Amino acid sequence: MIAAAARYALALGLVAAIGGAVFGGVWAKDQLDRREASAAAQAKWRVVRGRVAARLNDQYALEFGAVWMTHAGRVCGLVNGGSSFGGLTGMTPFFADGDRVRFPVTSTHKEWAPGWGECIADAWYELEKGSLQTGYCATRAGRTRCKVYG
What we know:
Blueprint: H1 2-55, E1 63-69, E2 75-80, E3 92-97, E4 100-102, H2 109-121, E5 125-128, H3 140-145
Antiparallel strand pairs: 1-2, 1-5, 2-3, 3-4
């Protein structure tokens, strides 16, 4: 009985050691990939940021929430920018699709869903810290006025 328990404990320990080594290796590779991608990711974000500003016709009043890049290199995030009426839109999701910046209100479901699905599933490299919440309450002005219940 003791020999069986000892073999079980040894096997369990061996599985844990192998699992830890594999996980540690995957984690280390991901960290190395992030370091190597840093300069390219920041350069891509500068280009996409300019496109978002041009698309929203407002270069200076843009307020970004969370912005990140996927493993595939897609830049995704949330932005509070100007509307066509001169007001602010509240935090609205966007992603870069090649040379285009896509927003849910100006894209068809077929254009929007696959790209945003990738964004949500693979938030790999953080470009800007910020909220993932959409709407007015996620903006600087909204955080001072919105009340959280519960």
